[in-house]
Amino acid sequence: MGNHTITKCLVAALGGYSNLVAFPSQANFSSDTVRPYNLDYPVVPAAVTFPQATQQVASIVKCAFESGYKVQAKSGGHSYGNYGSSTGEISVNLRNMQQFDLDESSNVATVGAGLLLGDVSQLLYNAGRRFIPHGTCLQVGIGGHATVGGAGPPSRLYQLTVDYIEEVEVVLANATIVRASQTYNSDLFFAIRGAGASFGIVTEFKFRTEAAPTQIITYVYEWTATDAASRAQIFRSWQRWISNSSLPRQLSSTLTINPNTTIMAGAYFGSQQDFDSLQVLTQFPPAQVANVQLFTNFLELEQLWGQQIQDS
């Protein structure tokens, strides 16, 4: 097929709405439409589509196959390789797939693949004080995050985002639409949970959810020593502490070594009393900064984490 034919095919796939597809010849294609996450890695997809329904995604895939193009889905676009907008391929931007529902009897959430983590957090919390564990960058799309893992501060206690998937709706490479779970299309369900981009375009998830934590302790300890010996001592102390098998799973921890500071930060999903009983600072050299806070609103904490990531 020529360029004119693929253009007509994509517009038809999108219900005749030409505003739901863009091509490199259009003005500001890169800055306004592709919007690459990594500006050091230029990409020029053959077309960017913005489907509004799963059937449109299937029709786009059919057009691409018949025209000899590869297809790549894009959920949030938080990719250092700009993989959702690969050069010469047809990008399927899922930003319009933002359906959401929480079944009050089962607490299973139906989530569109175009929602961002921040959207999912707010919708779940406001619907019934529910949550699923995920990372702290709220601009990440749920589609990519859930299909490759999804780690964050709650993960030691609550597991990964991918562990909460109960069912998916998927557009396969032959443009068919199927659903997969533990009980039907189980091989596809296994593959989607970890290698989703290689097996299809997930347009909708069903997640089991948890009651949102009501007591979370956050902690930040900072050391200002910059000599190698002092930093090595802190690092060895942290390795020894975090690898202790008796450390409760309610605790998460990261260590960041900056040019002028060493920072240990994390969260404890439990009471202040239980956190204090860990006597964290007894395991380390004296810290110059210690900041410990109690949160009772998990959504506020997630939003704070997201803002900190955005500001960093």
Strand order of the largest sheet: 5-6-10-8-9
Q: How far from one another are the termini?
A: 46 Å
- Shape field: globular
Low-confidence stretches: none
Largest sheet: 5 strands, antiparallel
Rg computed from alpha carbons, rounded to a whole number of angstroms: 22 Å
| Beta-strand segment tally | 15
Structural class: alpha+beta
Strand content: 15-25%
Q: What is the typical, i.e. mean, pLDDT? A: 95
| Secondary-structure element pattern, one letter each | HEHEHEEEEHEHHEEHEEEHEEHEH
- The oligomeric state of the chains shown is single chain
Helix content: 25-40%
Q: Tell me the number of helical segments per DSSP (H or I, 4 or more residues long).
A: 10
Structure, described:
- The structure is a single chain.
- The chain has 312 residues and is an alpha+beta fold.
- Helix content is 31%, strand content 24%.
- It has helices spanning 3-13, 29-34, 54-67, 117-128, 142-148, 155-158, 186-195, 228-242, 272-276, 298-311, and strands spanning 21-22, 47-49, 71-74, 90-93, 100-102, 108-112, 130-131, 165-171, 177-181, 201-208, 210-211, 216-223, 251-257, 262-268, 289-295.
- It has a five-stranded antiparallel sheet with strand order 5-6-10-8-9.
- A hairpin with a 4-residue loop joins strand 13 (251-257) and strand 14.
- Helix 4 packs antiparallel against helix 10 (298-311).
- The chain is globular, with a radius of gyration of 22 Å.
- The N and C termini lie far apart (46 Å).
